[in-house]
Amino acid sequence: MSLFWLVIRQLAEIEAMAATKKVITREEWEKRLNDVRIRKEDMNKLVMNFLVTEGYVEAAEKFRMESGTEPDIDLATITDRMAVKKAVQNGNVEDAIEKVNDLNPEILDTNPQLFFHLQQQRLIELIRNGKVEEALEFAQEELAPRGEENQSFLDELERTVALLAFEDVANCPVGDLLDISQRLKTASEVNAAILTSQSHEKDPKLPSLLKMLIWAQNQLDEKASYPRINDLSTAMLEDSAV
User: Fold this and answer.
1) Residues 185, 225: one domain?
2) What CA–CA distance (Å, rounded) separates 99 from 113?
3) 214: nearest Cα among 227, 226, 232
4) Calpha distance 240→79 (Å, rounded)
5) In this prediction, what percent of the chain has a pLDDT beyond 70?
6) Handedness of CA 167, 168, 170, 172 (dihedral sign)
């Protein structure tokens, strides 16, 4: 992320100059970029952080052996965390809850919102499978009491139960609850909670740095014309129109 630090440095320098927009040539920009030194160890830690947080256990193990970079958590715990995430993504919510409790019972005990969302996802799966009576019973016995204690839970419960009022649930106003994105949202919430319980960041650092790079470039755009990155996937420098 040497470009990010270069942009920040350039922005600070231009702040101290006149208000006229400065033009920075590609040659000058690339020279400044090459002058920025980032330790390889720091870059390796950034890569390892991403692999661990996103759950790429095999890649993390291979990267550890090749780079000598040690992860800040036991890689074996990644497998368990990914098993929970996969269970939710496949709609096996009961199995996911059991696995979470095996990992650390306090995760759900201390996070009522997460537990409600898992139970809500379980209700969605019952409705998806056409188990209407079981869904109504589950909603009444397991979710309704929680809704009485929390208005936001009650709103979500009512929205979920509304699925039962439509024959064509896929195209009803609340049909998005049956979309795969709802499973992914719940799985992501569980993943973040497990990471937090392991004293690990719930989000990888790399995306945050990329967002900071975009912000820094936008700030610099107001004061200078310079080769910038427009496509983060390629990280190619493109000359700005003067």
Assistant:
1) no
2) 18
3) 232
4) 45
5) 91
6) negative
